[in-house]
Every structure is written in C-alpha cells, then in structure tokens.
C-alpha cells in the first residue's frame, strides 16, 4: 500500500510505503481477474518512508531527521513478499512475477549524465547483470520460490516466474536518445 507523503518536504517527492499492508484498491478486485502480472523494481529507487505496524520503520533516500536510513533491498523485499501474500490469499487464477528489467544507462546513472545510445543488442556474455540489478533479480527469484512453496498448499492458484532479466539486459536501448531525460536537461 502506498500514499503520497504529506507536503512537509515537497522537494523530496516522498511516498509512504506500508510494507505489511495490502492496497485494497487492487486486492478488493483481485477475485475478478483470471490473470495477474506483477512487474516491479524501478519504482523502488525513489525516496520512500517505510511503515510497518502503522509506524515509521525507516526511509530510503529521504534524509529525514531521526529516521533510520534503510537500503532499497529492505523495502523491496518486504513489499514484494506482501504482494505475493495478497495473491496467495485472494487469487485463484494464473499469476506471473515478471523479473526486473536492468537499467541501460552507460556513462553513469540517468541523473548523472548516463545515456542510452547503444544501437545494437549486447551479445551473449558481453554483459552480465551486476550490482543493484542483480540483487533485485535475486530477491525476486527468492521470494517467488518461497511463494511457490506456499502455493502448493492452495488449490486453483497457479504462479509462474517470467524471468526476462537476461533478455532485457541484452536489449540495445531502454530510453531512446533525448527521451530518456527531461527536455530541459542539457
């Protein structure tokens, strides 16, 4: 469950992420679906305040006073686990967890001059997932495997991993030319 944070720190563009709560906007309608796809990852790189048991447990990229700075992986793991639990408890169709699509910026991160200018795909073994991209993928696989074990106890639900990470790593350009940056950026 997520909400936009109060405008106390508008320059941070903070969100509240309730790591142990479902968002009723989608869980209340989940039983109407035959298919469900979870595709996540990059959203979790933004400034976020984490809540657990209705209390702030920390934050990421927020620099709020007296608030524990927690890594991206902390919030991502718990949010994915909660989402998969919502599916296991409320869904009877076919669910897919689509793995993380790696970033494609060369020459630095997107906000530090990195760009996507590659015109041909990488060849096999020319690049490998690493760093944060690899860690997010590993979290997804680990949480999928745990949910898969729970799924075996539940009749009717089918859960599949659509592991596209390696294929998406090879693609040539994730954010074509000037469209990967704000139009006012140099």
TrEMBL record:
<dbReference type="GO" id="GO:0005794">
    <property type="term" value="C:Golgi apparatus"/>
</dbReference>
<dbReference type="InterPro" id="IPR026057">
    <property type="entry name" value="TBL_C"/>
</dbReference>
<dbReference type="Pfam" id="PF13839">
    <property type="entry name" value="PC-Esterase"/>
</dbReference>
<feature type="domain" description="Trichome birefringence-like C-terminal">
    <location>
        <begin position="10"/>
        <end position="183"/>
    </location>
</feature>
<dbReference type="InterPro" id="IPR029962">
    <property type="entry name" value="TBL"/>
</dbReference>
<protein>
    <submittedName>
        <fullName>Trichome birefringence-like protein 21</fullName>
    </submittedName>
</protein>
<comment type="similarity">
    <text>Belongs to the PC-esterase family. TBL subfamily.</text>
</comment>
<dbReference type="GO" id="GO:0016413">
    <property type="term" value="F:O-acetyltransferase activity"/>
</dbReference>
């Amino acid at each position: 469950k997520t909400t936009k944070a109060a405008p106390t720190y508008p320059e941070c563009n903070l969100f509240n992420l309730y790591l142990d709560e479902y968002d009723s906007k989608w869980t209340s309608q989940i039983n109407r679906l035959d298919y469900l796809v979870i595709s996540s990852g990059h959203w979790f790189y933004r400034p976020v305040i984490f809540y657990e048991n209705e209390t702030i447990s920390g934050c990421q990229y927020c620099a709020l006073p007296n608030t524990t700075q927690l890594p991206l992986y902390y919030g991502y793991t718990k949010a994915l686990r909660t989402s998969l639990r919502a599916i296991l408890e409320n869904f009877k169709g076919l669910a897919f967890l689509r793995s993380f699509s790696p970033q494609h910026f060369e020459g630095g991160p997107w906000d530090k001059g990195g760009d996507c200018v590659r015109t041909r795909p990488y060849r096999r073994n020319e690049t490998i997932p690493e760093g944060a991209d690899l860690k997010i993928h590993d979290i997804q696989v680990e949480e999928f495997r745990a949910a898969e074990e729970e799924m075996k106890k539940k009749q009717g639900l089918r859960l599949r991993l659509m592991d596209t990470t390696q294929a998406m790593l090879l693609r040539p350009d994730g954010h074509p030319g000037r469209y990967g940056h704000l139009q006012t950026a140099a």
